[in-house]
Design brief:
By secondary structure, the protein is α+β, with helices and mostly antiparallel strands. The chain contains 29 helices and 37 strands. The chain is globular, with a radius of gyration of 35 Å. The two termini are about 45 Å apart.
Length: about 1000
């Protein structure tokens, strides 16, 4: 089938000379650091099905496809592989075993996982080395260390057999005693007497005695972990990742060069897409980066346009930053944390009035505890300050006579924002725990009290903020509950606190806000009492109270004290913060709102760096795209997609568009920088319209149909092609060719549909709207007309995971089933922003059903199963079946138009075949055979309406029908007459309800014995049908 399509060039389409309805759909070019997988395929089907369907409507359809190589992922992967070879050898490295990991219970809700301990032992597992230099593994040496003692071997564990290793999913296990405080690591001994490098160290585990067992079936008195210091799991080696793609070890070596990835993976992407039957015009395919001189020229032109329109600025901006890479780490450069932005905090400077014993070495210096706050306007309500007793804090040199105390993570972030003397290197003078500082006397800026005390709070998280938190019990339910707990003598005694650190401090009202119809002066106290909060352990009630207090207080509250008394809280926040900064009582700093890991493997920070940035969020620019999304010119297909775009537009602001190294296009006016990978991916859809004139191959090494050199593409040429500018005066490109290229763009643009996963709403898709609105500012009819987004894909109702065996590349899944049965299962998976589910059961059923369909079809066509040449309305069964076909094609068309592909599959395949099977059964029951004309009509219509989802199957069956043309060039069926509701109702009654009722009656009477007679009652009046 694919050979037939290739020979007829069925998916190659050019702009016609006359008027013709068109449809252009696109899909974000996938990143080429590996093979396409089933997740790509699922999102892709939304565009594929739409392209096929619109072709059946008689439109000229263009579906082009490119391959993304810009950015850090390929560069980082190549660098990682190079480091692995340097450390472990090439081409067959000797890798260490994985870090020993104790078995734990699954995490549930907010409960931390616990160790599974059976008969006084805990099971450790570790990943077997992925390669050991072509040497067999003899056994493993398991080593343990308690406290500060050196590691000593405690066991020798034989290497499992291949079968055992496969059953264990590549992991080795061994049980160790659950006692003391222990850390483990392992090394593999090889057959030649050498060893692998040592694994990383396990978690540090200390054991206590629990009255209840971890497992209900376990013996009483079973030990559980009292403390587990978590460490990250084993990251896969890049060599292993490539090996898992069926690349032989000898062939992996060239991947140390990033350019090799560009040569290797894009052609495999083309291979898999062709196998999938995607209706792509491959003449227009390309790869990105400066390796492709034509695309490079296009991106340079785009950025000059953005700069000329003053949409690009330069300066220090807080940006997610990779210290290892030495540059900004944008979304596509991240291994974890896509979409995470800098979170700005106000660091409140709480000065120590008396140095506790742990800080005696800092006497003579001013010491400030830094409390990170998102609500600086509430500072007049402070009654104390919170710290985590078990938290580890650093005392960092801020100046020769000044010290800041905060978490190490916060200090690291601050150091990249010019807060400490040396950029990127905070100098730690002393390390302390929170317990060392409890009871410290502090000066709280703007607070009512001259001094407050540092008190313990166990819910503080050291991976967010500074690890030190201000306490405002009148506004914060969490603070109120914790502060009231410490009013109890028993609680204070537990922590070793003095009464004078707590009892003299009364809650200070700071905000008036209406709750439940009355003005509340202390919202936190009111909500805690209303909800019956007994202690800080009432987490659900406190969360509810928090949501009410913070939302209403911030949105509708009024300041009741302090310098901005009487002002709305929203307004006071910024003014109060500015005043505190001016008075040196606070400063601003940022950190990633969640964990961000670069593809090079380091935890990212927020850094203030000089960079080029796009001015997204600019009022006038933002208004343009908001108006477009809300206009009739744009279709989002469902309200949730539209809401997601409006949300993204509300927060997307200045975007760093430059970085120092990686793959890509140089910033044309400042070539020390490269253009960031998302920033060069916003209007490239326009490039598709002329790509085949420019380049013949993916990387632009061969000239395309126009025989144009890259250096002939100056700004005048691009302006003429895309902006309807004047004909270039000095261009070497022939005028008639330029006119043809311009006509190509003007015919296809704007794109009618762009399909994507929902994760790209927050960056790429919204940025595409912004950049279209700038480049085609005077031509809004060139802006995108529609975006469709889908949710994540589960496989067999589980998240895709190699360890679960449900991660498939496109190549794998098509080899296991077939292209069309995979497409059927993907159509059935779902079409909303919620998680979809690819069911292998559905694919397998389709694999079994398609041959049966063809056998039945051939039997009816060759006479093995008889049909009758008669008028198509000879009997009621004929009229009913014809009416059902009309109904189903009408419903199917509606589902395709709305991109409800699960419903389209149900209607155009399952219901179609069900109705036909029912018609055959009815005909036999009436002593007749089906009408030949209706049988042929059914098969023609069935194959046409199913062809967007299963084109190979339908094309093959189309040939069996004797059609010489392609089913893809057919016309979507039009009902032969309006759907007759009366006939449909009669059919439902006769063929569904009556038989069902008689079956039920038969089942009921059979319990009384074999019936010998029946009475049929005929109504005197019945419905019109």
């Amino acid at each position: 089938i694919q050979k037939k399509w290739a020979e007829s060039k069925i998916f190659e389409v050019d702009a016609p000379t006359g008027n013709h309805e068109k449809f252009m759909c696109t899909f974000p070019y996938p990143y080429m650091n590996g093979l396409l997988h089933i997740g790509h395929g699922f999102s892709l089907t939304k565009a594929v099905f739409s392209a096929h369907f619109n072709r059946l409507l008689g439109k000229k359809v263009l579906f082009p496809f490119g391959f993304h190589c810009t950015g850090m992922p390929i560069q980082a992967a190549a660098n990682k592989l190079k480091r692995e070879y340097e450390l472990y050898g090439s081409p067959y490295p000797t890798f260490p075993p994985g870090r020993p990991t104790p078995d734990k219970t699954p995490a549930q809700d907010k409960q931390e996982p616990q160790l599974i301990i059976t008969e006084g032992k805990v099971t450790l597992t570790w990943k077997a080395p992925g390669c050991t230099g072509q040497k067999a593994i003899k056994d493993y040496s398991l080593m343990a260390s308690s406290g500060e003692a050196d590691f000593k071997e405690i066991a020798s564990i034989p290497h499992p057999s291949p079968e055992e290793l496969a059953d264990g999913k590549g992991r080795v296990s061994f049980q160790v005693p659950a006692e003391g405080t222990t850390v483990y690591k392992v090394v593999a001994r090889l057959a030649d007497g050498s060893t692998t490098p040592e694994s990383g160290e396990s978690e540090e585990i200390s054991f206590g005695v629990s009255k209840s067992a971890v497992k209900q079936s376990g013996p009483p008195g079973k030990r559980v972990a009292k403390k587990v210091q978590a460490k990250s799991g084993d990251a896969a080696f890049q060599w292993e990742i490539l090996k898992a793609m069926s690349i032989q070890p000898e062939d992996i070596v060239p991947f140390v060069e990033p350019e090799y990835w560009l040569q290797y993976f894009p052609p495999l992407g083309v291979r898999d897409l062709q196998r999938f039957g995607a209706p792509i015009d491959y003449r227009r395919s390309f790869i990105t980066t400066s390796v492709n001189p034509y695309y490079d020229s296009f991106i340079r032109w785009q950025f000059r346009k953005l700069k000329k329109s003053e949409k690009i600025g330069f300066g220090k901006r807080p940006t997610i930053y990779s210290e290892l890479d030495g540059q900004a780490c944008m979304d596509h450069d991240r291994a974890e944390g896509e979409g995470v932005a800098p979170q700005e905090y106000t660091a409140i400077k709480m000065e120590l009035l008396e140095h506790p014993s742990a800080l005696q070495s800092l006497k003579g210096k001013r010491v400030f505890l830094l409390a990170a706050s998102l609500r600086p306007e509430t500072m007049p309500g402070q009654t104390n300050c919170w710290i985590l007793p078990e938290g580890n804090y650093g005392c960092f040199e801020a100046a020769s006579d000044m010290v800041y105390v905060c978490s190490h993570r916060a200090a690291r972030n601050m150091s990249f924002q010019d807060i400490f003397p040396v950029w990127g290197n905070p100098k730690c003078l002393l390390e302390v725990t929170g317990r060392d500082l409890m009871g410290a006397k502090l000066k709280a800026p703007t607070a009512k009290y001259d001094a407050v005390y540092l008190l313990p709070l166990l819910t503080i998280k050291m991976d967010k903020g500074t690890g030190i938190v201000t306490s405002v019990p009148s506004d914060s339910p969490d603070d109120y509950a914790a502060f009231m707990d410490l009013m109890k003598p028993g609680k204070r005694e537990h922590f070793g606190l003095k009464a004078e650190w707590v009892e003299p401090f009364k809650v200070v009202p700071i905000i008036d806000v209406e709750i439940d119809g009355e003005i509340r002066t202390m919202a936190a106290q009111y909500m805690c009492e209303k909800l019956g909060v007994q202690s800080q352990k009432d987490k659900e009630k406190l969360q509810e109270a928090h949501d009410v207090c913070y939302k209403l207080g911030f949105d509708k509250g009024t300041m009741s004290c302090g310098p901005f008394k009487g002002q709305p809280v929203k307004k006071a926040k910024l003014e109060f913060r500015a005043q505190m900064v001016k008075d040196s009582q606070a400063f601003l700093y940022s950190e990633p709102e969640k964990l961000v890991m670069s593809r090079s493997g380091d935890e990212c920070v927020v850094a203030g760096i000089d960079q080029w940035y796009l001015k997204y969020g600019e009022e006038g620019w933002r208004a343009q795209i908001e108006n477009h999304i809300n206009s009739d010119a744009f279709r989002s297909y469902n309200d949730r997609i539209k809401e997601s775009f409006m949300d993204a537009i509300s927060w997307l602001k200045e975007w760093a568009c430059s970085r120092s190294f990686g793959l890509g296009t140089r910033v044309p006016w400042d070539e020390q920088f490269l253009i960031e990978s998302l920033s060069d991916s916003t209007i490239y859809m326009a490039y598709y319209t002329v790509a085949h004139f420019l380049q013949k191959d993916l990387d632009g090494k061969e000239k395309g149909l126009g025989n144009i050199n890259p250096d002939e593409l100056n700004d005048e040429v691009w302006d003429y092609l895309f902006l309807n500018g004047p004909m270039p005066k000095k261009s070497k490109v022939p005028k008639d060719l330029l006119q043809k290229m311009q006509r190509e763009f003007r015919f296809w643009y704007p794109m009618d549909l762009r399909v994507s996963g929902k994760d790209l709403i927050q960056n790429h898709l919204t940025m595409a709207l912004y950049n279209h609105a700038c480049v085609w500012e005077n031509e809004p009819d060139m802006w995108p007309r529609g975006f469709f987004c889908n949710g994540w894909l589960l496989v067999n109702n589980e998240k895709m995971s190699k360890s679960k065996g449900n991660f498939f590349t496109m190549e794998d899944i098509m080899a296991k089933y077939s292209a069309d049965t995979v497409r059927v299962a993907m159509a059935e998976s779902g079409d909303t922003l919620e998680n979809a589910n690819f069911s292998e059961t559905v694919a397998n059923k389709a694999l079994l059903a398609f041959p049966v369909f063809l056998e039945t079809m051939q039997a009816l066509l060759n006479g093995s199963e008889p049909v009758e040449k008669r008028p198509a309305d000879t009997c009621f069964a004929d009229r009913w079946f014809a009416n059902e076909l009309n109904r189903l094609v009408s419903e199917g068309k509606t589902h395709y138009e709305k991109m409800y592909y699960r419903e389209a599959l149900k209607t155009c395949y399952f219901e179609f075949t069900k109705v036909f099977d029912q018609y055959r059964d009815i005909s036999r029951a009436c002593g007749r055979v089906p009408a030949e004309s209706l049988v042929r009509q059914y098969y023609e219509w069935q194959l046409i309406v199913l062809s967007p989802i299963a084109p190979h199957f339908c094309e093959h069956a189309w040939g069996i029908l004797g059609k010489s043309s392609s089913v893809l060039d057919a016309t979507f069926p039009m009902p032969t007459s309006p759907v007759d509701v009366s006939v449909a109702s009669q059919g439902t009654h006769i063929y569904d309800k009556v038989p069902h009722d008689f079956i039920k009656l038969g089942e009921k009477t059979s319990k009384l014995g074999q019936p010998t007679a029946a009475t049929v009652y005929v109504a005197k009046a019945f419905p019109a049908w």
